[in-house]
Write a structure and sequence with these properties.
Blueprint: H1 3-8, E1 12-16, E2 26-30, E3 34-39, E4 45-48, E5 52-57, H2 59-63, E6 71-76, E7 80-90, E8 96-107, H3 110-121, E9 123-124, E10 127-130, H4 134-144, H5 149-153, H6 159-174, E11 178-189, H7 194-213, H8 219-235, E12 241-242, H9 253-265, H10 275-283, H11 300-324, H12 333-363, H13 367-370, H14 374-379, H15 382-413, H16 417-437, H17 456-483, H18 491-512
Parallel strand pairs: 7-10
Antiparallel strand pairs: 1-6, 1-9, 2-5, 3-4, 3-6, 7-8, 8-11, 11-12
Helix pairs in contact: 4-6, 7-8, 8-9, 11-12, 15-16, 15-17, 16-18, 17-18
Length: 526
Amino acid sequence: MPAKLQDTLPLARAYAVRELPGWWGKSLDVPPGKIGVAVDARGQARTWPKPGRHRVLSVSERLRGQGIGLRAGWVPAEPFEAAVQVPYLLSGEGRLVNLSLVARVRVSDPVAFFTRQVAPAGVLHHVTLSLNAEEAQAALSAVTTQYLADDLARGVPGEGLQAALVQRLRPFLATEGLAIQAAPVVFFWDPEKRASIEEKVLALEERLHNLQIEGKIAAAEAQERLEAFLREMEADGVKVQVTPLDASEAASPEEAQDVLAAVRALWQGKEVRHPLLKRLFEQNKESTLPAPRLSRWWWVPRTAFIVAAWTIALLVTRLIFWWRGNNSFWDSWDLLTPLWGFVLGVTLEGIKALYEKRERAEEANWQKYGYTRVDDLARQDRARADRLVREQSASMLRSLAEALNGWRSRVFRQGNTDLALRLKTLEKEAEHLAEDVLRSDFGRPPYVDPSLRIGKTTWDAMLDYDEALLVELHELLEYVRNLQSPDKATPSQEKALASLEQKLADFRLMFSRRSEALRPQQDGEK
């Protein structure tokens, strides 16, 4: 394959059966530097580590229905850069920070990577993973809680933190079929600064695009642009740590270009907005959009057409025999050959169309791995979206009450009855608030009104408000858990308790204002 054509290839690609070369039997063309993969509906997989054309389906296999639900394609054989985001990690003082990094990875399990990442997307130009599972957050928070949020944002921990993160990420990337080799770019940032960072990334992208149009882009310029981007990020309070893949050498211009592309991919890949809401919809299986299914009599129209073609052909054949006064095919071959050639062609095309229709219907099943757009999922059932937010909020408030109860029991045994009474009051407030948020009339969001027409921008704004609620409660819960210690209550704990009282009151007010989620905030409002 010419080098120029090789450069235009995506990172990975998946094909439906109808997109593969061949009329009945199907084959797969695997480019150089790629690994061929085919997975059928039963989960049985085959791989081809060498490039070239490989047989995926024979005629007999397809006639037996083995092409139904099958996907085939290729994945990279060489290491590449993947963008990884882990939202809402806890710092040492209880603040929430987001982690973004560029990881040097390779495909360790081609079938798992193809099934989970490539097949749902169809075409994969870059990999952006959002690890918002509770297990991943807990594993990485065990590292980040050793540092203050400002130190994390300024890159104070250095390469030791990068090595610890790589070790913690290994099992979670392994489930995606990837093995992490290094993390050349790591940075932590405040979720509230996302808009500012996005603006810088988009401005950088625009400058690079203009250079490409002018034909001036080169590896050396990519290095210069990367350094300029890092300086701008640091001016905004975010230190991006860049470590060469080979620690004994400076980052090469080519490596800088790859890293820069992956940094840009952090904001150009999968939808990573509303990660807590996204997790709710993934955990709530009933909220997933059902895969389209064929109707019970989907095969009838095409079958009826084939039967009609045969019936007409038989009648015409009978008329030809009657007209010519004999029943020999060879005496009427000049008329019967084109007639039955047409009928056989219609029959084969009809049977092929039936198989393809069934195969297309099964393609939707691949979306269950990659369908993560919260806005589309929630719009299918707005009442369910509201219910999930309420149930999650109530669950976290009950967990908060349990944490306060444990804290109260400990300080009471230590003899600090005043602090124990204040904790008891807070515990009751958390329990009452958990009951209130489950009431449909408390903090009723506008989107539950089925007659309200909602555009994408408005819908995103309302989901942003719900996400902010969950983030606020998540931070509060983690902060309470972090405050608990076997030591005797100190004035700092009493000061923290006063802050908790205010935060809980602010959350009640914030939840009650879900009905005003689109109202412009006044100066000084939370």
